[in-house]
Specification:
By secondary structure, the protein is of the alpha/beta class. The protein contains 13 helices and 22 strands. The protein has 3 domains: 300 residues, FAD/NAD(P)-binding domain, CATH 3.50.50; 107 residues, Succinate dehydrogenase/fumarate reductase flavoprotein, catalytic domain (Flavocytochrome C3, Chain A, domain 1, Alpha-Beta Complex); 100 residues, Fumarate reductase/succinate dehydrogenase flavoprotein-like, C-terminal domain (Methane Monooxygenase Hydroxylase, Chain G, domain 1, Up-down Bundle), CATH 1.20.58.100. The strands form 6 sheets. Strands 1, 2, 8, 9, 10, 11 and 18 form a 7-stranded mixed beta sheet that branches. The model has no long low-confidence stretch (mean pLDDT 90).
Length: 538
């Protein structure tokens, strides 16, 4: 089956939806998403969006906080772009119907780790869910946007799919091959422009705050098509996810305990009740995430504990229930009244600062392909993302990309559309060997968690690389002879993402931000720049 559209958007988080709404003013837009349209990392973002609104705040302060948190690797132009465009785009979200929390009519501002001022606008502790609700409502009532749920992108379509001789030096993206899970068939989706907005990579780790769909699909497809990939070694572990003990599945999505709690006065304690963050940073529990996560990891290892505590009991029960209703209800459901009891927490994989390299408009190194949101490496986050900058980055770059695409979509012809072949499934078979997929998935998660986590070493990384290469080869053999399905596609992408993280980590001969190596324990003053990897075989 062949479909044509002006713009293909792969993913339905804040980046994909906000871009689609703006692009629909001048083009036909098709959104494909693996699950229901509301399922995305955006939907689970509790904290909020960082932006300069308070008279006590300034662009300069927000820029400085972001650069400081990024440990010298942020691209200043990209940081300035998101900070200075933020307030206007927040106003646009409000016009679209997003209901942010207010205090006497004014937007209520919170504070999170690494921020010098209160600048986090939020919707209680369910900000992402509220943004998704409003954006999806507008998408649903837009005749120029179609949404295909339960559709997984397999690979991007470029010249190598239909030019058998020497491919042109400048490669283009003509859309994607897409697997329709409900009807069990593969569609050839041809588009003038393609936008990757597939979200994060958290599922390559055992414990993650990301939903099951966060398997790094967009980054993996981009790498296979020849895109430049950058800074994959910088994986942010959220310091505080709810610890469930041995009752939770290894593959379960960890429940996030928002950083806004620490902004509201919560403090971290060891299992014997002692505060410890003052030993690691003068900002104590409000230090940036990389510092807090390493501190928790160190205290757990030093004391032989499985978790530490987060103490929010200094706040009244009424204030906790008002500001953190979702967290309060979740903890109460497991018998924990957080107004009286400490919350057991552990770090969990949360956000990938690296991805497909893009310019200030979201353009990639592959012509006619854009990337937005967590799949991108814009330079905003550097070696460590400042809390609540991710939704802001997605909004701003989606806005910039939509303006560039308006010009591009009018100038692009369908020259190669008739040359693009449909998907060739010959020689593949349906198999009942699903145990191979589940086993490989668990192996990948174990390897990444044990060897490529918060603290790394060359010995661990080389050991991980050898094992991941072996698993990758096995998966590729299995993939080539097996009929496509979503689980197999995700597995293939997960092992490639793991490989890219490990390779990038080995290239960085220093500790910086989220990448901490016991072989290079100090951050160099003359540091390496971004680690860039590209697929030379394409």
């Amino acid at each position: 089956m062949r479909l044509k559209t002006d713009i293909l958007v792969i993913g339905s988080g804040i980046a994909g939806l906000s871009f689609a709404i703006k692009a629909s003013r001048y083009a036909r837009v098709l959104i494909i998403t693996k699950k229901e349209s509301a399922e995305s990392n955006t939907n689970y973002a509790q904290g909020g969006i960082a932006t300069v609104i308070s008279p006590d705040d300034s662009y300069e302060m927000h820029i400085k906080d972001t650069l400081d948190c990024g440990a010298g690797l942020c691209h200043k132009e990209a940081v300035e772009q998101i900070v200075k465009n933020g307030p206007e785009l927040i106003r646009e979200l409000i016009e679209l119907g997003v209901k942010f929390s207010r205090d006497e009519g004014k937007l209520e501002l919170g504070r999170e780790g690494g921020h010098s001022q209160k600048r986090i606008i939020h919707a209680k502790d369910l900000t992402g869910k509220e943004i998704e609700r409003a954006l999806l409502y507008n998408v649903k009532h837009n005749n120029n946007i179609k949404v295909f749920e339960h559709h997984s992108a397999i690979d991007l379509i470029t010249e190598h799919n239909f030019i058998r001789k020497t491919a042109p030096r400048k490669r283009n993206c003509y859309g994607a091959y897409v697997y329709d899970e409900k009807k069990n068939r593969i569609k050839t989706v041809l588009s003038k422009l393609t936008i990757i907005c597939t979200g994060g990579i958290g599922q390559v780790y055992l414990h993650t705050t990301n939903p099951a769909i966060a398997t790094g699909d967009g980054i993996a497809m981009g790498y296979r098509s020849g895109c430049r990939i950058g800074d994959m070694e910088f994986v942010q572990f959220h310091p505080t996810s709810l610890y469930h003990g041995n009752t939770e599945s290894d593959n379960a999505q960890a429940f996030l305990i928002s950083e806004a709690m620490r902004g509201a006065g919560a403090v971290l304690r060891t299992r014997n009740g002692k505060e410890f963050m003052h030993k690691y940073d003068k900002r104590k529990s409000l230090a940036p995430r990389d510092i807090v996560a390493r501190a928790i990891d160190n205290e757990m290892k030093k004391n032989g504990d499985d978790f530490v505590y987060l103490d929010i009991t200094s706040l009244s029960k009424e204030k906790i229930r008002h500001e953190f209703p979702n967290i309060y209800r979740k903890c109460l459901s497991i018998g924990l009244d957080i107004s009286k009891n400490y919350i057991p927490v552990v770090p969990a994989a949360h956000y990938g600062c690296g991805g497909i390299v893009s310019d200030l408009n979201g353009k990639t190194s592959l012509s006619r392909l854009f990337v937005l949101g967590e799949s991108s490496m814009t330079g905003v986050h550097g070696a460590n993302r400042l809390a609540s900058n991710s939704l802001l980055e997605a909004l701003v770059f989606a806005d910039k990309a939509s303006k560039v695409c308006e010009k591009d979509v009018k100038s692009i012809s369908d020259k190669y559309n008739s040359s693009v072949p449909d998907w060739d499934a010959s020689g593949t078979i349906n198999t009942e060997e699903w145990i191979l997929i589940s086993q490989n998935k668990n192996e990948i998660k174990q390897i990444m968690s044990n060897y490529v986590g918060i603290v790394r070493s060359n010995l661990r990384l080389h050991r991980a690389l050898r094992r991941i290469k072996l698993i990758r080869d096995e998966i590729e053999v299995f993939y080539k002879k097996t009929c496509v399905n979503r689980e197999l596609l995700e597995l293939r992408n997960m092992v490639l993402i793991s490989y890219l993280i490990i390779r990038s980590a080995l290239l960085r001969k220093e500790s910086r931000g989220l990448h901490y190596s016991t072989d290079y324990p100090k951050t160099n003053k003359r540091f390496q720049r971004d680690t860039i990897i590209s697929n030379k075989t394409v």
